[in-house]
Amino acid sequence: MYSEKFHLCVCGGRRFTANFRQRTTQKLKTMSFMNAYENKYTMEFTCYLYCVSSNYTDKWNLKKLGLTIHPVHRMRIYNTGDAPGIGLDKQYDGIWQVNAKSRVELLTLEKHLHTHFSSVRQKRAGNNTEWFAVSFEEVASFLNSQTYVIRQLSIDEIDVIHTISKCDRVANDTKTFEEENSLIAYQHANTASATVRMTLKEEFFATFLPGAVPRRIQVELWDVWEQICHDEQNYRGIVQWVTGTGKTIATLMLFVLSAEAFKKRGQIFRGLLIAPKNDIFDTIIRHIRKVSKWGITVCEGHHGSLSSLNIPFNRPVLVTATHASLTESDSWDKLPAMTHCHYDEVHRITGEEFHRLLQQKLKTWNTAFLTGTSATPKTCSTLQRKKIGELFGSPLRILHRCDVDEAIVEGWIAQPRFGVTIMSNDVSRKEIVRAFINTIRRSILDKQTKGLWKGGKVIAYLSSRAEVCDAVRFANELLKDWHIYTAVEDADATDDVRFVNDIADGQPRILFACERYREGADINGIEMTAVLMGNTMAANIILQIAGRALRNDYEGKEGWCVIVRPSDENETEDDVFDSILLDIMDFIGKDDAAIPSRQKIERVVQKFFGPFAISGKAYNVDETIHRIQSMYARKAFERSDPKEKYEVIRRLNKGLGLLTKDEYTVRASEHPKYIEDPKFYFRDWWVSWYHFLGVDTSGFPQTKAEWSRVCKEMGIRSWTEYKEKSVQTLPANPGEMYEDYTNWNEEFGIEDEIVW
After folding, report:
1. Can you list the domains of the chain with their CATH numbers?
2. Three-state secondary structure along 216-271?
3. pLDDT digits over 269-290, tens only?
């Protein structure tokens, strides 16, 4: 009811008395009214930002920067912040049409403009005005670089506006004038209501999650990082959140809090945000720009713009840059000393030169904070693991962690399920692509049969544009009743847009792509992703791809990820299979044990794994569990030093239930890491065969002398008697427990016993 009265008042003209503003401010303090007003007056008109000058203000080189929905009407108004004395010579230097759909959105864009030029903003009676000591060229350069600007009006269009503004008001303009007056009133009231201050945390979440309750992990990370910024002068750590839980929010949270911390220290904040690819920035740049709300100037250096950036050294900045643009020292030298560096998708740190320069600059700059985000910081090659360890410690320092299980329970992501098919490399690539299409078809039918198919969209990733073209051709032959789309360069630019916008009604809709939509894409109705990996595609990329299907569209959803990979000529199909399994296990989140327990592996396999096959041979649950155990054993062994390797194999021996040297030899084919002569291989750490086999010897005499004494006390005088009486209290094979044991005859000084 009040919003209607408010509308009637403001539409009557410019009668903004002090009492009216006071009453309005009190009402606007309640969020319910703010929401009601905003929803009721959603804009259906064109929005502009403008730059105004006059002969009176030109002597100080002042420009007025503001917003309007009606440039003609705005030119006629002289009591909305204009300095006295500018008279009728006020004119537009420039007008920019912007993409805003509500008053709040338009006010936000105006604030972004004002914040950018905040250092030259003029004050009157202690308060900020809309007048800035800035040239028109500076304003035009800034606005024309913003994605929210639709176009800059031409000189002829502005001349028409000036001409009309000097004419009498016409009847047809009444509605628009009322809307403009309503906007002005809202601006006044909104400014007044801003006296109700929010905390930094409230302001941050209201900006990046408007109208939504922050997730528990987001609040936890805020509190943890805020404490670190307060207590620590230097810190390095990784936010390990599964795909789909809001790593972008986490990244910006880190920057906003560290910027506030440096502000309190009296230091200038300089942030550097590095990402592996431009695609990532294209997805999140609209969010990154919002940090300007806290006085941080965003310098966009991705898409090859780093070399041409004009980075201010006297104010807080956040610079964006791709990995590729920072592989030469000249690019780093252009940057000021950064106080906080952050690497997004940190598991993809590659390149010797980049890594060397990053480490060098962190030391030279004395960078206080180095952070990273990744769903899977441990799922990378040995070389990548070494590089990440050099930056973030070994074991890695995890700032905050959220695993797949936790995200599923909280309802943040759908249940993932992986299917892996490994093919031999003895067929042509086109035959492999055709087999890939058939695998997608079988997987869709399987999901439909199980009643798990509702949205209907699939993204299928291939290694090259040529493969995408082949896949589309084969799909049109084999999947005639299904909708096929493409997302590659030079293809129909609207094809992938149609895929994103088409209704998710259960109809199979398959988008074939190379690199697009691999990271950061959140598309409604994605049931499944599929990837045909090549030997140049890093295995951990599949985990980013899998995340595209984890949007929790409906209760009970399973987001499938179908992985097809031919072996390479330098590796076996088993090697490829094992490397992918390891990445999946790390993505899901294993415990800290080098070799997870069978119970843990069994739970993961039954919950997350679908059909597995190598060259047509399907693997059941037990075979998959045994394979994963063996895989972890081999990996643990390869990463260990000799002493650690001894303990790895000792645990394996115990797990296999080996009790004798002969059993170890006989069961060599079952052993994940069999060594032919372990006594020689581990000569520096060798204790005995019993120790190596992991046999429990706590109930036996611990030395040969003690063993000999016990045997004599028990009256044992022959090997036959020993075997009868040594069931529990003595080792069955004393020579495998006591290294100084010789033989029965020598130990007891008797003749050899003849065994027939």
Report:
1. 2-193 (no CATH), 200-402 (3.40.50.300), 417-619 (3.40.50.300), 640-693 (no CATH), 704-748 (no CATH)
2. HHHHHHHHHHHHHHHHCCCEEEEEEECCCCCHHHHHHHHHHHHHHHHHHCCCCCEE
3. 999 999 988 878 888 899 999 9
